[in-house]
Amino acid sequence: MCHVIVTCRSMLWTLLSIVVAFAELIAFMSADWLIGRAKPSSSEEVDNRTGRSQEPYRPTLGIYGRCTRISHMQFSRRDMLCGPYAENFSEIASGFWQATAIFLAMGIMILCTVAFVSVFTMCVQSIMKKSIFNVCGLLQGIAGLFLILGLMLYPAGWGCQKAMSYCGPYASAYKPGDCSLGWAFYTAIGGTVLTFICAVFSAQAEIATSSDKVQEEIEEGKNLICLL
């Protein structure tokens, strides 16, 4: 018989697992990993609303994508053209970034799988006498290791020609030159930290769903068990 077991700790772990997976996925797809040095606008480009020359803009560069200004258009966020600069994997600017893409993709795939499975832990808490929470926690720990490897390799690619075109000639491995780090990089780091928190918290979710109070509710014949 299927028992729906919902506890505060198991629900919090489920929600956190979903948030972490989406955060890492959005960061990976974003082009805002590096914010390039300011590039002046053309003297002919004038803001129609103010009549003054447009302010310098800063292009952004991601692992496989970029955002840059469309020339001869009124300056606004809509004038930024964003998309992949690499049509295939081999065209990613640096071998280090290729490795970063592989490790991040593997970690994100694991996190998305765990996030999907976590939704069903309310109904199924074990498979083949193995706790789903413990298995998912182990997978999240492995995903966290992949994410760390990817994030450690990413700055090593700052010396590639593509990065130097955005960050200036002084950019090199682990030195961003004239670039600054964008929100996507920090989001990926934050998501990695939360991934390990999820891995640890999965044990608490398992304890909460197998507690004596839950067993008492099951013995009383209840199919829906909600505990704070």
From TrEMBL:
Listed InterPro entries: LHFPL (IPR019372)
Localization annotation: Membrane
Entry's transmembrane regions: 12-35, 96-120, 132-154, 183-203
Topology relative to the membrane: Multi-pass membrane protein
Alphabetical GO biological process terms: single fertilization
Signal peptide: none
Alphabetical keyword list: Fertilization, Membrane, Transmembrane, Transmembrane helix
Any GO CC annotation of this UniProt entry: membrane
Pfam families: L_HMGIC_fpl
Protein family (similarity comment): Belongs to the LHFP family.
Protein's recorded name: LHPL2 protein
Species assigned in the record: Bombycilla garrulus (Bohemian waxwing)
